[in-house]
Amino acid sequence: MKHLVMLICSLLFLGLPHGALAQDEASMLNANLSAKAELLALPELDEAAVDKIVGARPFLGLSDLDAVVLPLLGREKVEMLYTRLSVPINLNTASRDEILLIPGVGPRMAHEFEEYRPYVAIAQFRREIGKYVDDDEVARLGQYVFVPLNLNTATDEHILSIPGVGRRLLHEFKEYRPYVNIEQFRREIGKYVDDDELTRLERFVML
User: Is the pTM of this model over 0.90?
Assistant: First the structure.
């Protein structure tokens, strides 16, 4: 219960609707956005490991997080950690090795992830992967992945599905439409966030 309360408080602070940690409704903690107290509540992490994670932010993929935590915890603990903590990976660009870091995904399922590229929306992922697993498993896997959104056509709901984007930043994303190139996005959104956060956000958008 204490962990749930901390998570809800974090969501309210960020201005996110509940379940907006990824493009699927998610209970998974995001290694880039979670408060130190939330990370310390994970049984695999001690204070030294949490300090390493916080100091290495932002992670641009699950592989980057893995490079930090694997030497500290070993593979068995890391696999358990990734059932509760992750960094969303880009369905269209993630390497096979990165896909295989998702708990429960083996070579056969990784192949199916890759088979349907390029994904145009997370709904496509749900539909295609739903041919192989049940709805609960599709929802679980959906917590680990995202499909970049078109800056000029994405709906409010889709923009708010980007981890860390609340109503205020939603307004700024829309304020500068139509974007003519990604450099314009960097220039305009860079007025509101620092360079590290801009780099993190850029992963989730496209033109």
Answer: no
What digits encode the pLDDT tens for the residues 157-173?
999 999 999 999 999 99
Tell me, what's the pLDDT at 10?
A: 36
pLDDT digit string, tens, across residues 78-109: 999 999 999 999 999 999 999 999 999 999 99
CB 30 within 8 A of CB 201: no
Q: What is the per-residue pLDDT for 27? A: 78
Tokens of 136: 């609960």
Count CB neighbours of 4 within 10 A. Answer: 9
The CB density around residue 166, as the number of other CB atoms within 10 Å, is: 17
Query: Is 162 within the bounds of a domain?
Result: yes
Please report the pLDDT score of residue 46 as a whole number.
97
Would you say residue 47 lies in a domain? Answer: yes
Is the residue at 188 inside a domain? yes
Q: Give the count of beta carbons closer than 10 Å to the beta carbon of residue 89.
A: 22
CATH of the domain at 161: 1.10.150
Residue 118, preceding peptide bond in cis (omega within 30° of 0)? yes
User: Domain span at residue 187?
Assistant: 149-206
